[in-house]
Amino acid sequence: MLARLRENIRVVFDRDPAARSTLEVVTCYPGFHALTLHIVAHGLWLRDWKLLARMLSHATRFLTGIEIHPGATIGRRVFIDHGMGTVIGEHAVIGDECSLYQGITLGGLGLASKPGKRHPTLGKGVVIGAGAKIIGPIEIGDEAKIGPNAVVIKDVPAGATMVANLARMVDKSVDQRRIEKAEQLGFSAYGVGADMNDPMVKAIHGLLDHSVTTDKRLELVLQRLEALGVDCAEERATADKFDPTYLNQIVD
Length: 252
Fold this sequence. Notes:
Blueprint: H1 2-15, H2 22-28, H3 30-46, H4 50-64, E1 67-68, E2 73-74, E3 79-80, E4 87-88, E5 93-94, E6 99-100, E7 105-107, E8 121-122, E9 127-128, E10 133-135, E11 139-140, E12 145-146, E13 151-152, E14 161-162, H5 172-185, H6 199-227, H7 233-237, H8 244-251
Parallel strand pairs: 1-4, 2-5, 3-6, 4-7, 5-8, 6-9, 7-10, 8-11, 9-12, 10-13, 12-14
Helix pairs in contact: 3-4, 6-8
């Protein structure tokens, strides 16, 4: 326990240039308080003293403004800077050396897509910017960086940097027309879910749809010409290799 406390103090000096003394860290850093009390609450949770663990985490939230479920697993040398409004769910796993800033959420889904797992898993050295929301039983790879106010609902590979998603009104009629178009083409160019409604993504998908339709019409023309005895071998040999599935993955 004392070793963990020393680590939690040392990490503040390593990552916060405003820290001046050990006494200041111990008395004035709510992130240090929250992590220290979580060690106790998590120990109680593992020993099946769950009500007492919840009561301690509730008191910690009142004192620090940081809500950490006692069931959450937090590694060594984790740093919470400021931390007000931070929420960490029951099944969240935070690897060693992670840095979390104020107002972040490691939240869960009401119906878990993975049995017994509703909250994210952060690898080693992950940095989560202020206000970021990471939702669901997803995995954030080692050394990944999540920008301020980003909303992340899919796995993030190691070393990647994710930037913010802006909320937009969902136009259900556009989504329905897109689904009907995909059924006609036999190809869906959705790189994101229909409810994301990103205008740039939709524009790119529209171009992909048009390209697929054009290719099908050109293929039909070539087939008709060949049926009339026209040699189209050269046209087929020099045709561009268009892979809409690959482009769709890039958009995603």
